[in-house]
Amino acid sequence: MERCTTREEFCQHVSGLAERLAEEIWTTVVATTSEGADAWLRARGGAGLRRALGAALTARADRLGTPGPCGTCGGPLGFRQHRPVRVHTVLPGRDVETTVVYGQCGQCRAGCRPLLGELGTDAEGFTPALQEMATLAGVIEPYEAASTELLGRLAGVAVSREKIEHLVGAEGTRAVAPPPVPAASAPASVDPLTVAIDGGMIFVDGRWQEAQLGCVYDTADRVVRPTRSTLTARHVVAVRGARPRRWARSSPHHRAAAKRTAVEDLSRYLTTNRDRLRYQTFREAGYAIGSGAVESAVGHVIQQRMTRTGMHWRSAGADAMLALRSVYRSTGAWDRLWADRPRAA
Taking 50 as the threshold, does the pLDDT of residue 246 lie above it? Predict the structure, then answer.
């Protein structure tokens, strides 16, 4: 990687890249054929951008040098050498070749590459933007399709299904207990708050288990239309439940008794909760009494991603996916999760 140590050198280098690309566009598109011009330019333009970014990162690494004390023991850091590295980015083609400053502590001999710490790359060189893109792809689609179709075919970046699964597991663990939202950024609403609960079944650790989901929204966020109502904002949380499935475990000759017990339980429930079943009164007061919102959330959060044909999960993977799907389907939550993400060491 060519090292540009001054602004003038860097601008001259990038201008040269732009000139060569312009010449290629004229020769390939203008003078020959426009067929496939956009796909060709995406590939060639991406390569040019990666070279420009590589030169910029090299210059930034020289400017950073080896600042500050050692992160391990606090000792002094000294310059050791320049090292070529490959950074994985969201640019088409993914890999950016650059040269970084490698420093070493004079006391504990621990090494560091300050530029990579500033970029926030992980141990494999993936930038935070590519980590987010790969995680989101795995939340939307099964890992193989996320790798080959969403990232490979659509975005033009190569991320293995194993890497996507690893990212989902790591970020899902963090999403299970996200940092609290500051009170100043979440003003209290004067509208009634609706809380609805439902569940769906997923195949985890060799058996069907229930995932319970809560859907919370302000009444003002519910838009009523002649044919159906929609929500403009909502917050959902899905977790695996530990509720026993007595009916599934019952043998055939026990089901008649199970049915009688169920009827008795229903009768007792209706009697006990009679005052809570005044639906007409609640409807006239403006409360939402239907289950459409939470049933829709179950479909969006659980069924669309986790109950496809032949799909099975392990406990850790299921919990991570439920957490990330909840964040993904909660208004504004995905951006907050990544904004609060700690930087890689």
Answer: no
